[in-house]
Amino acid sequence: MSDKKNKNVDVKELNAEQLLKEADKKAEDSSMWRTFIRRFKRSKTAIIGFILLIIMFSTAIFGPIIYAGFEFSIGDMEISWGGTHGHHYRSQNLDNNLAPQSWEHPLGTDHLGRDVLARVLWGGRVSLAVGFVAMGIAGTIGIILGASAGYFGGAVDMIIMRFTEIIMSFPLLFLLLTILALFDGGGIMLIMVVIGLTGWTGICRLVRAEFLSLRERDFTQAAQALGASDIRIIFKHILPNAMAPLIVSITLGVGGAILTETTLSFLGIGITPPDPSWGNVLNDGQSYLRDHHHLTTYPGLFIFLTILGYNFLGDGLRDSLDPRLKQ
């Protein structure tokens, strides 16, 4: 008799586990990933943005190596490849300052005789890295706080949202300038962290709104009834279904983070010279704008194309992931 009872208990536990797995599968199916690739390929805006970003990232990663070359040593062995000394972003030649565009210097030189193309290419590495990492930090914080507020509600929701509103009440640029001034400017890592720690509020509010809606759906209620843990429900059931607007927001946010870093560097409180970023390259050229426009035109063009790429990609992702466009 006891064996029969144990068998019934095992069957019930097995059925519960199977039902929970089915709930997991339904949650994944409802996240609309099956149709995403098809819609993305049909979106000309998304494709243009994606191609622009591929070009900009490829230029930033491989451009300095191809243009300026590299050299390093391993023990007694020295390895070098390509480029010239004058094409390094720190190389100065005061006898050739403010030179126009030429074969040797395709974008000319600045007031210290530094090659503008080399500085724009290397500055692209810095600006793109800052935008990407900063939004990674902001996205992580925003998702954790927004998911906690939306799922648990009550006092947790109230505390998190009041804290979010306090952060949002400060002017972002003033807050960034104040923090960086306390550290007497900053290196790349500090800029990444500061932008990330101040840029999560919008993502937090978005995730909270999605969780407030999705926690009332049938698949969430079923998972709770079957005894799934809160962590499993949040990350396995609800978060995948909230990813569509979240991806769009983060994609657009990367462009915003790049603009923020560019603004800070342009104001002289971002990336510390002589290390270049698009912002301080613009700052170096502003005094010579009338007679030597190449000092600001080309870094400005790189910024424009990068932000345009992120905006196009974000717009295309929104159209591809919007359930109202499902056919």
Could you write a compact summary of the structure shown?
Residues 124-314 form the ABC transmembrane type-1 domain. It is built from 13 helices and 2 strands.
Provide a descriptive summary of the structure in words.
The protein is mainly α. It has helices at residues 2-29, 36-42, 44-68, 116-152, 154-169, 172-182, 188-198, 201-214, 218-225, 230-241, 243-266, 278-285, 294-321, and strands spanning 70-74, 77-81.
**Counting H and I runs of at least 4 residues, what is the number of helices?**
13
Distance between the termini: 56 Å
Give the quaternary arrangement of the chains. single chain
What does the average pLDDT come to?
A: 80
What class, by secondary structure content? mainly alpha
Described by the principal axes of the CA atoms, the overall outline is: elongated
- According to DSSP, the number of beta strands is 2
SSE topology sketch:
Elements: H1 2-29, H2 36-42, H3 44-68, E1 70-74, E2 77-81, H4 116-152, H5 154-169, H6 172-182, H7 188-198, H8 201-214, H9 218-225, H10 230-241, H11 243-266, H12 278-285, H13 294-321
Antiparallel strand pairs: 1-2
Helix pairs in contact: 1-9, 1-10, 2-13, 3-4, 3-13, 4-5, 4-7, 4-8, 4-11, 4-13, 6-7, 8-11, 9-10, 11-12, 11-13, 12-13
List keywords for this structure.
about 325 residues, mainly alpha, two-stranded antiparallel sheet, 13 helices, 2 strands, elongated, OppC_N
